[in-house]
Amino acid sequence: MAETDRSRAFTKNVKRIVVKVGTAVVTGKDGRLALGRLGAICEQLAELNSEGFEVILVSSGAVGLGRQRLRYRQLVNSSFADLQKPQHELDGKACAAVGQSSLMAYYETMFDQMDVTVAQMLVTDKDFRDKDFRKQLSETVKAMMKMRVIPVFNENDAISTRKAPYKDSTGIFWDNDSLAALLSLELKADLLILLSDVEGLYTGPPSDPNSTLIHTYIKEKHQEEITFGEKSKLGRGGMTAKVKAAVSAAYGGIPVIITSGFAAENIAKVLNGLRVGTLFHQDAHLWAPVVDTTSREMAVAARESSRKLQALSSEDRKNILLDIANALEANEKTIKAENDLDVAAAQQAGYEESLVARLVMKPGKISSLAASIRQLAEMDDPIGRVLAKTEIADGLVLEKTSSPLGVLLIVFESRPDALVQIASLAIRSGNGLLLKGGKEARQSNAILHKVITDAIPKTVGGKLIGLVTSREEIPDLLKLDDVIDLVIPRGSNKLVSQIKNSTKIPVLGHADGICHVYVDKSCNVDMAKRVVSDAKLDYPAACNAMETLLVHKDLEDNGVLKELIYALQANGVTLYGGPGASGKLNIPETKSFHHEYSSKACTVEIVEDVHGAIDHIHNHGSAHTDCIVTEDGEVAEIFLRQVDSAAVFHNASTRFCDGFRFGLGAEVGISTSRIHARGPVGVEGLLTTRWIMRGQGQVVEADKGVAYTHKDLPVLKRTEAVENGC
């Protein structure tokens, strides 16, 4: 987790790539070519070739493919009596000779379909002992690169003088992994990718559930810690050979990635700088400390720190929040400087205006955040509050009390202020926390996390709040259903859906913010214009901003609809109409009612009445926040009772749907779920309950030893309980 983004920055300058595919990738379990898998790899290489990359392929698989073909030939040419006799092992060199022609025929056929020319390059260990050969090899490959030809290398096992190809590891190279490393150095490649049948290098055998993927290999740390499993049953190498080859190339100055050839687009992901597989680099020890932190270790540390936090007094927990508020204000200039860097980078990258708007920490934002934290600190302590009290029997009392959930994983969007709100709520509710913010806010999130964790006393520890720095770490965290208790994704519909489909951990949140304002025929016109304008313009990028304006049909005739439209258009709002409004208002028709603009744009539609508005909201809304503007109390009650959304308002802007504005202090998000918490999720939504029983030695004895009373007892407020000595 401590690895920085510098570890994958080298991919920006890559031009010449060596890709090695292992036997387990090239062939299936039956020894036949894995056509689909190999075709996908060829397609990636052809695309790189067309983009101007210089691609060199090193391919294993000839021996395995030849063995499969010769076994078939042996079977066809054998009598029944021959088959009853013990079958001799096929000659490996004969297998190589037969398989190589078949393998190359496939590559030629596949690449030809993509208008790419390939060239077969068979070499032996002996060849590389000749300086003239090495010089000529470099010149030949250079000439092919100019013509966009992809050379396909393989060791020429058929004529190799190596006595036992599967056991002899002597020489300049000893298998195709080491050949790939040698070629990378010899041909001055910028990157070597070794494709395997597993995701990368693990701390132990990949089949062992306790093994974890090593994202960056640090020789000083990992060479003594790794336990290798069995080598590949199809090829000669296995992970031991790959690591040896990778270390050799990496310390010769060639970055190496070991990753899966089974996963689609892995080569492209590597070149895009994504953290895929295991990286070997000569500077790896500078990027990450020798002592690294795994996803599990980070989650466990957050849980342990949360228990220390819960053990503190209510006053001590309150003081932590006050210290954080003070620290934020004291570091405002530093925070603003880091935020400016994020904003400038986002603008330079050409991000959408709505995303940049979320990213900006406007003047006064730090003061506002500090004020909300202080408000949260002054709230009644939510931990250990007695919610119900029952006398089970004489002298046996049961209490239902509030309790922290445990460890939360929050994946949130580009808004850096969300980090502060979420962290303060986690501390107030006694929960451990893992945070993954948007990459666009990387600098802002890092400084905010540092300021907050530095303010947490050592008795609790800064590990109470962990900051996840890479998107690629999320899948590992989503597997930790025994350590993480709740996931709250704040982002796109796609993000929320992906997380829900990828974890056993309960997920709380909302996918879209399709918020409606319905203006009824009995509205106060000036009020309607104020509410509609505020709901759209106060913060267009917010999830509680109006995305659809619904208007009663009678307002078209009396001119109110035109006034509402003018109020929006005069402030730069782009309008799209539904089938009933686009023609009448002369505006483009919307492609979908279920669309979150998150910008100065919205949809307008005309409806029959309040029931038509309710039906429209149920059919096209996201159950987030919806509002009615009307002076008719009966119509308002129909709307408030029947609209099935997390928040439903009468004569008030949808922008009020916010944890701070609700008096919750802050929010971790807005939930449209119907289980646990709904609407803005503050401290209460981050709590569960547990049962505390106090007795005097009572036993059950098959329910004969106790006389049940089940009598409700009064619940005292915390201050009353203290005064009474409870």
Automatic annotation (TrEMBL):
Example of a GO MF term: ATP binding
Family matches, as SUPFAM superfamilies: ALDH-like, Carbamate kinase-like
Annotated Gene Ontology cellular component terms: cytoplasm
Keywords: Amino-acid biosynthesis, ATP-binding, Kinase, Multifunctional enzyme, NADP, Nucleotide-binding, Oxidoreductase, Proline biosynthesis, Transferase
EC number: 2.7.2.11, 1.2.1.41
BP terms from Gene Ontology: L-proline biosynthetic process; pollen development
Electron transport keyword on record: no
Keyword set includes Nucleotide-binding: yes
Pathway the protein takes part in: Amino-acid biosynthesis; L-proline biosynthesis; L-glutamate 5-semialdehyde from L-glutamate: step 2/2; Amino-acid biosynthesis; L-proline biosynthesis; L-glutamate 5-semialdehyde from L-glutamate: step 1/2
Top-level lineage group: Eukaryota
Entries under HAMAP family matching the protein: ProA, ProB
Similarity remark: In the C-terminal section; belongs to the gamma-glutamyl phosphate reductase family. In the N-terminal section; belongs to the glutamate 5-kinase family.
Name under which the protein is recorded: Delta-1-pyrroline-5-carboxylate synthase
Species this protein is from: Raphanus sativus
